[in-house]
Specification:
Elements lengths: L2 H8 L11 E5 L2 E4 L4 E4 L2 H4 L8 H13 L10 H14 L4 E5 L2 H16 L9 E5 L8 H6 L16 E4 L2 H7 L4 E6 L2 E2 L5 E2 L2 H14 L3 E4 L13 H4 L6 E4 L10 E5 L18 H20 L1 H19 L4 E7 L2 E6 L2 H13 L2 E2 L1 E3 L3 E4 L7 H16 L2
Parallel strand pairs: 3-15, 5-6, 5-7, 7-10, 10-11
Antiparallel strand pairs: 1-2, 2-3, 4-12, 8-9, 11-12, 13-14, 14-17, 16-17
The chain binds pyridoxal-5'-phosphate (PLP).
């Protein structure tokens, strides 16, 4: 039986899979089970930040697996402490970390911190979490409810109470009340359609929340780990949130979720935990990935790659202005708005057939999340394939 038949027979059908099975990769180049090569402009939805088959990560993980992968969080774990140090220092915020295994789990941790912080005076129970319409925060029962998309609340109820949706940053101030425990937003909505928030509005919101002592939670599961140029998008936006969540790119492909916070006193022993979180394997991956990305940033290569990628994307956009209406995004989290959703679906299929992987976001956005290590040759090759795809529309 081949892979596709096995999958259909034994795996629950929660994903609409494209008709391809990759077997290996090298930086931003993937190879399928028939030996065909593809340029990867997706990084597996923003995960493989340092490229496929990264030699340094492979070496670090092989060494780690050969000695210890897991002991439990009942004991000290050197790579976890080191990973926390690297993440905190890269962020330049005075924070501490909790390690989980996914973006949703990181956001669950963030909500728990905000809610326990909200109980501080005993009398008024602050439990409301304000999020934005078109947001995406995860697939667990709580984070799916935190997600401001009605279509995702069709089943699975009753949900945890207390989630309130604002129609944009402007509306948040009017929704704050004595029961508000926190405000959780993405600085660039990813799944919602590569939708950057306005910097001044975000700064004003951050200031207002500080005055009211309401924690600001920034969901950086997609924007974090240098995706938009700084380690966190919060740094790029010039704000100091109380809580930041990371996942996707920070593990380079090894499952990891991190919630980091200035509210170091809120959780105490027994309040939160994870069996796998921050184990030797995933923490070692974080150490190596953050080291590699720190070096890319310091050498100027990250900025250079982002410039080359955005130039190529701009040229592609100009050449196809009959199909795309706008170029959006920041750094290497970017997109092109297509004139309609059907055309977009066709482009993504044709792109794959021509050897380049791209993503959809929101209703009509062609999304690009390339590995941050992508080379100029890979960028050129990818856009050539994409141009061929457009000519076949
Ligand atoms: C992907 C994503 C999540 C969910 O992460 P999982 O690892 O799939 O649980 C949460 N928030 C944002 C902004 C994301 O992009």
């Amino acid at each position: 039986m081949n892979i596709k038949e096995l999958d259909k027979k034994y795996v629950l059908p929660t994903y609409g899979r494209a008709d391809v099975a990759f077997v290996k990769g090298d930086n931003a180049t993937l190879e399928d089970d028939e030996g065909k090569k593809y340029i990867d402009f997706t990084s597996g939805i923003g995960v493989v930040s340092v490229g496929h088959g990264n030699k340094r990560v492979a070496k670090a993980l092989c060494e780690q697996v050969a000695s210890l992968t897991h002991t439990s969080n009942l004991y000290y774990i050197a790579p976890q402490a080191l990973a926390a140090q690297k993440v905190v220092e890269a962020s330049a915020y005075d924070m501490q970390c909790f390690f989980g295994n996914s973006g949703a789990e990181a956001n669950e941790g963030a909500i728990k911190i905000a809610r326990k912080h909200g109980e501080r005076d005993g009398e008024i129970k602050r439990y409301k979490i304000i999020t934005l319409n078109h947001s995406f925060h995860g697939r667990t029962i709580t984070t799916v409810k935190a997600t401001g998309q009605e279509s995702m609340h069709n089943y699975f109820g009753p949900f945890p109470d207390g989630f309130v949706y604002a129609d944009g940053i402007d509306e948040i101030a009017s929704l704050l009340d004595d029961h508000t425990a926190g405000v959780m937003i993405e600085l660039i909505q990813g799944e919602g359609g590569v939708e950057p928030q306005d910097k001044e509005k975000v700064q004003a919101l951050a200031k207002l929340l500080k005055e009211k002592e309401i924690p600001l939670i920034i969901d950086e599961v997609q924007t974090g780990a240098y995706r938009i140029g700084e380690f966190t998008a919060s740094q790029a936006y010039g704000i100091e949130p109380e809580i930041i969540t990371l996942a996707k790119g920070v593990g380079g492909g090894v499952p990891v979720g991190i919630v980091m916070t200035t509210l170091k006193e809120v959780l105490s022993a027994g309040d939160h935990g994870s069996t796998f979180g921050g184990n030797f394997l995933s923490a070692r991956a974080v150490c190596e990935v953050v080291d590699i990305l720190d070096e890319l940033k310091k050498s100027g290569d990250l900025e250079n790659t982002s410039r080359v990628f955005n130039k190529a994307l701009e040229d592609f956009y100009q050449a196809n202005s009959d199909v795309f209406t706008q170029k959006v995004g920041i750094g290497m989290m970017c997109g092109l708005r297509a004139k309609d959703a059907d055309t977009l679906a066709k482009i993504i299929d044709l792109a794959r057939q021509n050897g380049v992987m791209v993503l959809k976001a929101g209703r009509n956005t062609l999304r690009f999340l390339p590995p941050l290590t992508i080379t100029k040759e890979e960028i050129d090759e990818g856009f050539q394939a994409l141009s061929t795809a457009m000519s076949q529309l």
